[in-house]
């Protein structure tokens, strides 16, 4: 078995194998959107057999995190797989652990990625924990918030609501709310444009509420089935009216598209969670997905992560 980092030209095989394992039809354009253009560095470790057949992959997307009042490098683990042959062949049985540990060795630490995290379902969660590599921080529940869309009628777009991507508004809101968040992915304008603009086959609805000349709330919505998903919800923590307008915009979008509910994730912002409950949002634990992570840097103390971590649905690759 051969372990090595991704090389330019591997993307055809990697994406085809991903589609085979997960029964998807992802295009190469979407692969490039996720992992970057050919010129950008890739953080992908691969296992091959002696015949050049791909056995397993451990991959991550680099991000900046705001960690206890400082900005550090982190990465979200995505698209991890091992092919059936790697799970049944004794010769290839170490492929999954091999790519995981080699990824850690090459790219993680205080000079590399300070934190790795992902949102595995039950089966990969068990595999990662049994490996002994992901027991440092306990796996964490994913809180879901949801609310039925009220009927009938369509409301008008209110004054102060602007639609479309707005990186300057995201910059201003991130500056206003980051001190309320102890451990979170940096959500500035560059992040919003990278994450929610130009993805093939995906449509995101950006809405920003302005009051008294300042952006007060920024939401990114997507339609999935009969639900309006809010992927992001940046709020200044002050204007309750702005939050209500943003929720109403999600409802307006849902009515136009025949949806029956608003749904999203929120963890680590008790002020916003309290406001959502006051607006009749219900809360429940996701039945399948958990957060799992590992620190490679003393500046991200593992014992502080459970009480500090902030995330939304947009932190996953499920929307």
TrEMBL record:
It comes from the Bacteria. One of its GO terms (molecular function) is transferase activity. Pfam families: Acetyltransf_9. Keywords: Transferase. The keyword Transferase applies. This is GNAT family N-acetyltransferase.
């Amino acid at each position: 078995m051969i372990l090595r980092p991704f090389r330019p030209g591997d993307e055809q095989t990697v994406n085809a194998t991903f589609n085979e394992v997960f029964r998807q039809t992802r295009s190469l354009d979407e692969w490039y959107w996720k992992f970057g253009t050919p010129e950008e560095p890739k953080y992908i470790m691969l296992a091959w057999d002696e015949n050049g057949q791909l056995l397993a992959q451990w991959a991550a997307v680099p991000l900046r995190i705001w960690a206890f009042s400082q900005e550090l490098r982190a990465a979200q683990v995505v698209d991890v797989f091992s092919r059936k042959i790697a799970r049944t062949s004794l010769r290839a049985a170490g492929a999954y652990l091999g790519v995981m540990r080699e990824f850690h060795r090459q790219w993680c630490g205080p000079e590399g990625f300070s934190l790795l995290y992902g949102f595995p379902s039950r089966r990969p969660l068990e595999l990662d924990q049994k490996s002994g590599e992901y027991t440092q921080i306990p796996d964490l529940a994913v809180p879901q918030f949801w609310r039925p869309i009220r009927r009938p009628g369509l409301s008008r777009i209110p004054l102060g609501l602007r639609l479309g991507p707005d990186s300057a508004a995201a910059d201003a809101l991130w500056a206003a709310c980051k001190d309320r968040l102890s451990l979170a992915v940096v959500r500035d304008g560059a992040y919003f444009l990278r994450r929610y603009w130009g993805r093939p086959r995906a449509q995101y609805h950006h809405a920003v509420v302005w009051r008294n000349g300042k952006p007060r709330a920024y939401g990114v919505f997507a339609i999935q089935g009969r639900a309006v998903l809010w992927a992001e919800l940046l709020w200044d923590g002050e204007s309750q009216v702005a939050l209500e307008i943003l929720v109403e915009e999600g409802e307006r979008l849902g009515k136009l598209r025949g949806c029956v509910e608003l749904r999203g994730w929120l963890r680590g912002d008790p002020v916003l969670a309290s406001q959502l409950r006051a607006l009749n949002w219900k809360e429940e634990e996701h039945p399948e997905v958990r957060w799992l992570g590992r620190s490679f840097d003393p500046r991200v103390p593992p014992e502080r992560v459970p009480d500090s971590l902030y995330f939304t649905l947009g932190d996953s690759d499920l929307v």
